């Protein structure tokens, strides 16, 4: 176990060396700061640490200081469940943020629901919030929404026949299923369907099969981690002259670096305003929020801001806004206030939740992006 905290006070609290009176509001988190999903969890952890520090410097919530108890589950669902249980039973947190991946999120859900503790997930799969679970919320767009945004763009380009090459991890498998469920609504046919494992290092055979499919006009890769970068490199090596779409699961500069700028040229994917902060007009309601987070994160960490840290940023804002409005640190009151979130502008979109919607985003929160000259551009 690795425990990360924002201040010396939080460190002592995580070790159980202070009294409950030392911090009035205790927030828990378990993310994948190390391991195969560290590209998700590391910026999430750094973001939470930074935001708690900023919040306490500004006077906390309603005058009360916040302590963050943050665990690193390394992407292991079993560890995530253990840490979630520890957060509830030992650390006595009022809410949990985390679940960098769909797998770790699903492990945390049962703990949060049983304890009736609000949980805001940072993972993408639609089953996290569909069907709605009373104490479970999330910040990333769902995989179904990503499929819909991509198919909207394909339809506008008059693409009617596509191939899928999907990861078999939790996110890839879920998005593959969601894309199949909605593709017919856009008059698009899947004419080739291939998969790859999380540890696969060469997707050339699958891409060769897809390339040979009759009438194929584009390829979509539902997946996250290193797999999509390998797919993109193999795609370029095979000189496949078709549009390539990726998912929001790789919406970061790290994807371009791993795939290589030349190979990634022309790739399209649905992403957030955060990736194109400098391109947003001043009239965009997200401009000020994404600019402030980008400036603070990059100054604090010396690393580029990315979509995944933005998910943690929005989760923290949703939670602290709810605690402020509730005027209470009672988990049930916080849950009710989260569900009543309305018009909260974040890095991922403008959030308005309800009893039937524990995400609070629509397709307008997505921006269709294209990689050009090694950077992100907005598809008009």
UniProtKB/TrEMBL annotation:
InterPro entries named among the record's database cross-references: BCAA_transport (IPR051010), Leu-bd (IPR028081), Leu_Ile_Val-bd (IPR000709), Peripla_BP_I (IPR028082)
Gene Ontology BP term (one): amino acid transport
One protein family per Pfam: Peripla_BP_6
Key words of the record: Amino-acid transport, Signal, Transport
Transmembrane stretches, start-end: none
Keyword Signal: yes
Similarity annotation: Belongs to the leucine-binding protein family.
Descriptive protein name: ABC transporter substrate-binding protein
